[in-house]
Design goal:
Length: 157
């Protein structure tokens, strides 16, 4: 994952509600899967292994966020376990087909979580975070990010 995409995810996370956080983790997961496929095709096995590890960690994070009181929780957890098994086997055997099998399921779960996030109008999880404004200022075609720095950042008592 590039430095720019990490910064973009960080910004989005700081302004996201619970449903949007799930969508962001799915997007990161899909990025790591694509990254692993690229490394596998280039026969770069150490970065391939690292991308798979990060993808599995994203799935574990998604499993930790499941509301186990919901009716579909068991099915969702089973799909996550299946995807972890497929990605782990793909890592061991360097098998793109297993990555594709997990990716197919993850894409469907991602699309479903995007739809669910559209109807969630709850407030952001992170309170007291820095406001960020982006726009074209101070030069032709250069994007400048302005931070609205407040005195009361971080924990409040």
């Amino acid at each position: 994952m590039t430095k720019e995409s990490k910064q973009e995810y960080t910004l989005r996370i700081s302004n996201a509600n619970r449903s949007e956080l799930v969508v962001i983790v799915y997007e990161m997961l899909l990025d790591y899967i694509e990254e692993s496929i690229d490394h596998l095709e280039k026969q770069e096995y150490d970065p391939f292994h690292e991308s798979i590890r990060k993808a599995v960690n994203c799935i574990r994070e998604l499993s930790d966020s499941i509301n186990y009181e919901a009716d579909t929780a068991g099915n969702l957890f089973s799909l996550n376990v299946y995807c972890i098994k497929e990605l782990s086997a793909a890592d061991i055997h360097r098998d793109k087909d297993r990555i594709d099998a997990a990716k197919k399921i993850i894409k469907k779960l991602y699309e479903a979580s995007k739809e669910a996030a559209k109807i969630d109008d709850s407030s952001p999880v992170m309170n007291n975070s820095q406001s960020v404004y982006a726009g074209l200022t101070y030069g032709k075609e250069s994007l400048t990010v302005n931070l609205n720095d407040t005195q009361n950042r971080g924990f409040t008592i």
